[in-house]
Amino acid sequence: MRGLYVGRFQPFHKGHERVVDDIMDDVDEVVVAVGSAQKSHTLRNPFTAGERVSMITKALEDRDETVYAIPVEDLNRNAVWTTHVRSMCPPFETVYSNNPLIVRLFEEDDVEVRECVLFERDRFSGRVIRERMRDGGDWRALVPDEVEKVVDEVDGVRRLRDLDADDY
Ligand code: NAP
């Protein structure tokens, strides 16, 4: 059985990692859909789809279960988004989300949706991590070691600061 977990993962952090580990208790394989794949180089979406795929693949490569990280671009039409997701991903039976729109769209498509709550939400938050990168705070403790390496490899902190300087 395969489960789908959708997010933007800007960046993939320890809270997301914990959600994937919890999903693995339920299913044999996990499909991580990297949403808003067309977005990058903005304060809210600093990392490209390829960079996010690399973060997720490396952070989870030591797991026994197979994880597929698949970029999924946004669509202007919510009504056909689930079909779009299906067209990009390996087949899945269950969706894990607590995003109300995603729950609604998959339930209307007769897919089983299970709640997944982010671990230590106050600490592990994409927004907090991006702010710390920009402001010089400690973001490294909030992401898996492999994600830290990807951010450094692409000079991600400098990118965020340059975007901020341009007031995007
Ligand atoms: P999001 O917009 O990336 O995140 C919304 C908020 O939920 C963020 O603060 C996020 O925190 C948080 N969050 C993520 N996983 C969570 C969890 N397990 N428990 C509690 N909070 C969680 O939304 P998303 O749900 O992560 O990603 C949805 C993706 O689907 C987006 O890329 C969206 O554009 C796409 N989508 C597209 C369409 C369309 O194109 N028509 C329709 C539906 C959805 P973090 O920042 O810490 O992750």
TrEMBL record:
Metabolic or biological pathway: Cofactor biosynthesis; NAD(+) biosynthesis; NAD(+) from nicotinamide D-ribonucleotide: step 1/1
Top-rank taxon: Archaea
EC number assigned by the record: 2.7.7.1
GO molecular function: ATP binding; nicotinamide-nucleotide adenylyltransferase activity
InterPro entries, per database record: Cyt_trans-like (IPR004821), NMN_Atrans_arc (IPR006418), Rossmann-like_a/b/a_fold (IPR014729)
CC per GO annotation: cytoplasm
Biological process (GO), any one: NAD+ biosynthetic process
Reaction(s) the record says it catalyses: beta-nicotinamide D-ribonucleotide + ATP + H(+) = diphosphate + NAD(+)
Family recorded in the similarity comment: Belongs to the archaeal NMN adenylyltransferase family.
Protein name: Nicotinamide-nucleotide adenylyltransferase
Lineage: Archaea, Methanobacteriati, Methanobacteriota, Stenosarchaea group, Halobacteria
